Amino acid sequence: MFQLTFAAITVALIVGGLAERIKFSALLIFAVLWFTFSYLPMAHMVWFWVVLLLLLMHLALSLARRTGFCRWYVVHINAAMAALMGAIVLGKRIGYGKEALSPHSLTMTMVGAALLWVGWFGFNAGSNLEANA
What we know:
Elements: H1 2-18, H2 24-56, H3 58-67, H4 69-90, H5 106-127
């Protein structure tokens, strides 16, 4: 279940790149297909082989735990490439250049950033599966 939270966050990152470009129903279908055929294979390739190699090298394992080495490959790079390709394939946002697109709420942006910040500490605490110094 802990690893599935990374999957959920990754899909949420992609949604930001596809916002106002795609219907919600198509977005749900995309999320299921992308998770199945992109996220799961990438997570297996990176986490299985990296963790296997890191277990053989104790120094690298402690470095990976401190830096979050194993997470950012799967989550950030994978989500960034999916969002970029989606934006390129889908084209400009609906109404872009034709109607004024009002900015989003600064208050909600700050609340979202605060939730992300608190959640990031939870991810890092849970990654080691331990609570210690």
